[in-house]
Amino acid sequence: MKTLKPRTRPTAAEALAIAAETAPMLPPAQMPAADRAATLNMRLRESTISAITAAAKGRGLTIKQLVVQALADSGVAVTATDLEDHTPRRRGH
Predict the structure, then answer these.
(1) What is the pLDDT of residues 44-72, one digit of tens each?
(2) Burial of 78: CB neighbours in 10 Å, binned 0-12, 13-18, 19+
């Protein structure tokens, strides 16, 4: 049975030197951070929630759309995806 030669891994500095020697004109690879959806919870008075709900229904929007639109209108940079209605719909309705 053959035995394999032990292999040593290069250190971080050695790996950078190898990369610089192999492709000196290429910039380091940078992975863009994923802009994933996250949850935001707020504690509000029931009267405020009722007013928000009524305003959203009156405009044909979800509560999330109404709040995000208000943030956008006040100058907060929001992603266009957050302005869309992503409410799951029931099948058959």
Answers:
(1) 999 999 999 999 999 999 999 999 999 99
(2) middle
Domains contained in the chain, number: 1
Quick check: is 54 in a domain?
yes
Taking the C-alpha atoms of residue 63 and residue 42, their distance in angstroms, rounded to an integer, is 12
Question: Does the predicted model carry a pTM greater than 0.70?
Answer: no
* Residue 39 DSSP SS3: coil
Average pLDDT, the chain: 88
Name residue, tokens 């959806």. Answer: 37
Domain residues for the domain of 72 are 44-87
Task: Give Cα separations from 42 to 10, 49, 64, 73, 76 (angstroms).
Answer: 49, 10, 12, 20, 17
Is 76 inside any structural domain? yes
Task: Evaluate whether residue 19 is within a structural domain.
Answer: no
Task: Identify whether 13 is part of a domain.
Answer: no
